Hints:
The structure holds two protein chains of two kinds. By secondary structure, chain A is mainly α. The chains are: A mainly alpha, B mainly alpha. Chain A: InterPro entries: Alkaline_phosphatase_core_sf (IPR017850), Phosphodiest/P_Trfase (IPR002591), PIG-G_N (IPR037674), PIGG/GPI7 (IPR039527), PIGG/GPI7_C (IPR045687). Chain A: Its main location: endoplasmic reticulum.
Amino acid sequence: MGKCGRTVLLSVLGVALQLIGLVLFVLGFFPVKPALMGKSDFESAMPSCQTSTYHGEKKLSQLSYQEASGVPRQFDRLVIMIVDGMPAELVLGRGGRPPPAELVAAMPFTHSLLASRKGFGYHAKAAPPTVTMPRLKAMTSGAIAGFLDVAFNFNTQALLDDNLVDQLAIAGWKMVMLGDETWLKLFPDKFMRHDGVNSFYVKDTVEVDYNVTRHLQEELAASDWDLLVLHYLGLDHVGHLGGRSSSLVAPKLKEMDDVIQRIYEKLIRSSVDRRTLLMVASDHGMTDGGNHGGASYQEADALALFISGSYPGDKGELESASKRWTDAATSSAWPSFQVDVVPTLAQQLGVPIPKNSVGALLPQLFTSLAPKEQLRALELNAWQLFQLVRVRSPGSVCVKQLCSNPSGGVNSGSNSEASGRWSAEKEKEVENFCELFKQATDLHFAWILMDKNNLTRFTEFEAARDAYLELLKHTSEWLARGTTEKNTLLLVCGGVLMLLSPLLLIWTTLSLYKAKSRRKQLKIKGSKFNILGDISFEKLIAVGGVCIHAGSLASSSFVEEEQYTYHFLVATLSIVFIRHALQQPRIQKDTFGKFSRGGGGIAVRVLAVAVILLCGRLLRAWHRSGVNWAHLPDIAKWLETVDVQVPITIRYAALLFATTSSCLLILSPSRRHFLRKLIACCLCLSATLIFVYVDSQSEQVPTLFGSASYPDQVPTLLARSVFGILGITAVLAVTLLPWIEPLWWNGDKKAACFPSQEIKRTWEGFPLETGVSSTLQSVGRVLISCWCLLQVLLQQSINAGPVGLLLVQLLATVVFFRHESNNYELWFQVLALQWMGGSGHFGLGNSNTLATVDVAGAYIGLSSHSTALSGLLAFIITYASPFLFLIGMMLLSSPPPTDTNSNRTTRDLILSEAWLLEILVVPCILPVALNGVILVAFTAVLTLMQDHLFVWSVFSPKYLYVCAATVCTSVGALLYAIISAYCTSIITLRLRQLERKQLEFQSGEKKS
Amino acid sequence: MADQQKAEVQDDGFLSRDPGAIALLSLQGLCGVALVVGVKTVPAYYGLNLIAHPVAAIRCALALTLPTVVVAYTLLYIFSSRPRPVWRCIGSGLLSLPLGTVVIALLALAFGAPTSLQYASRTLHWAFLMSVLVVLPAAIVLGSSWPDWQRIFAFTRPRGGLERAICIPAHGALIGAWVGAFPMPLDWERPWQEWPISCTYGAAGGYLVGLTISILLQFLLPKDVRSKVD
């Protein structure tokens, strides 16, 4: 048992090392960005190095900020009009070329504004992920979240950081919101009137926008608001349906243009008492196919268009169209970022710039101010960024010097004092900043002195302004890049631990097999027709496949299109299976020494492999997944266009199939028992509830029960009761099934003996090993059934088909592996299931971008928002397939060590112990080891590629998926370990009892 | 020459002599040349190429390769052993082609070849070419003998030079096509990444490598080992 203990210890150590190493690495690689707490207040108008120590003591009114800042507010009212998903290219053209003529024609009014310089358009580059909620956060707070923030706040609701809307609220602005309800989630209770629409029905391109525009009449007439937010989702929906070239784009732009015209006519041209600014912006762009989420130019190319009556109107003349597109000032000369909107709006509206904003002012919008005010606005922005720099580089010497003597000379040669924590490169960046800052403030100071003496010349002003702009641009980009110091110690420790884990686990597995094969060799002297030669072929495929997969992750394309790699691996495995099946001799000696035709075996196995291949191909075709070809047609898109009812019908079919096959699996003919019937009943009950749930979601009128619609609470209640029933069933099965598993079999293996008969039988075979193996199978069948039913409930309707296919694929694989003429080693079976799980992951529509996480499903059965629970549900939905196959490993079995009918010898005993250990340990640690290989490989890739162009858009999201997969695999391994340990102990206990009874029985017989 | 080629009756009664290395070199070399000329030179003569006109180029390759392979392997078969009449060899070879095409096309689909109708013609042409390279030689030489097919394709244990000449190029073509699929998901946006162009190149390359290996083995292996190697 020493060996057993050592194996278990090593396994636990391996799994633990992997998790610890991962945590260390993540903490080291993605440091949480230091952010400033609290909100900007009047102090930000008084630049100084002192952090606000007297917070709350002096509460000055907003007026004091106005006075202190020295920048007059330019506007009294703001209309923010967000056109979701509109690429700036469609309005402003690209690279000096105008947009296509039909798009220009679609927006005549906007283009006339641009031409007459009443509007300024910017290509506002959005940071990834280009999804609405993070973009809105960036557009209001000005902060670019660190990568982990994006992951952790994937569906957190209220925006807690300092932001523009809060600042305006403090200033007493009244707000109205019409459109995407994301705003309401971000800023609850801020809007006095709102009408939220949701982005749930992507096919609707008309209603969503009509629901916004229908309020426009009264809101434009009303004068009680100061901020009006309009968020139009229509264009994004158009894009998702038909891409950029959709015929719906031009009419949609025309609709937007009409709205702009209405607002302009009503609020800007005619209203004189209140100066109004209209900002037309988009949160992100879209690819040609209409998708977004990544960091490509097309997705990041968002629009920011400022329209107001008070812009200088540039010599009041209309420019010729050809000049406009190439003119530097209108668009492309000032590469702006989406976050630049924040300081710009804040300064124009007379509120402090939010604390964590990394944006830089857009100077063209301030040209109507006096030179003094312009410089003041730039100075305030510079100081605000300076505070961020200070927090980001706490050890920097030059920042401290700058602080102690803001306008005095910074001794740039004094970096000898820089403590060792600061890398030279980083210090250089900070010094660069200090230098620019000093230069700008010096020039500004000089200008002020000259201004007091009325000596100012325009060139001095320009010099100071340009110095500030240079500073702002530089600092803003530097801060946005967020090169915070990575903790090298943590990185190295984490990396080493992660590397150790798969090595340890693989070594454990290998030593297990070494011991086994040594013993096997003792027993059977290698027979002539051994398949050993072919097992080395399997090893080749396994090792080669893992290496190819791990190596492919170094290429961003293979990360984006990982579904092809997985599918290819599974298909290659299937070829190995077919080859192996064909090796079976046509005529063979069976165990009874009679010749029989083995053709049946070949047919069954080839058929099973054909089913595996077919299911795999259908799964791959179901969702295209990936990035580059995601827009091409696939089964899911096709089914959705055919008819709304089709996916729902398929969902019913999948439900029926899952239920039937579960019941068949659980009530397999020889094992009828009350508990099994109970479990089957529970599953049927939950299937019925899911059926009603699907009906309640299908919007089919009338519903099954004749009524027009279900009460609101019913779906939630149904889902909850399904969770409950499935949970209870699973727990019941795990705890009680080991007690009722028949331990003794009649010779023909068909019928279980009853306890009375058990006593009479003599010892033969390996009751413990076969008992544990069959118990694990029974438990595994129940768990698989529960998991599949849960997935039918949680996944989108369109994904019910893949869930069914996955179940078929898993069962076909198990049938194939358990076929009696197969003698695959258990590690190979585990590997096969692991790869199929990975392949199926993409078949369910997942990809390696964050955009495909099904957030909608994460609210099923929840009545109130809970990040933990909905996160758990999202995790369950996303990792449906890998986890299904992890549970599926309970159904596997290793080829038995020896003929169970022979009498036990000591050698057999040792052999069977090794076999038991294999069944208990390999499915538990090998998935973790395989996952560890991928984890280590991808960690290395991420570390090497940290300056790669795609690091934020491709590699980092994939790393999150790899981390989540690690968690999923570890949970699966833990579950397997617990269940198998429990089963083994229960079976051992029962066997001891039986042995005692048998002894009693025998002694009783002797006496009589 | 004839007395050096040891006739050997094997367990299943298959009579086989080792074909001469020179014969292998010339005949297999002919197949290789036919493939290269068919894929590259002839289409170029007509102003076509595999990348822009995959179907036409594969047709050219087929027009040259199919007869060459039939002739070459029939001759090889005649040189080494002759238990079946020649017309049966050619007949079984030609009969195997449609079957091989269907099986290989299905496998390609399973591996992820596009299922849309516009690719059907390309897939079928590619599969036909593959089946000329992989299935046809085996069908000509082995006929319908299940143990021989099993030995070569399920066990990869060719016996003798003739079976090596079938087995190694066939596996080379299959592995080449498998490797040829690797660059397809890359985002280089090159026309040759389209199905089945890179796979055709891969298969052709693998086939040529296989030919070379089988010829070299015939030259390098000592004569008495040649026929005993399993």
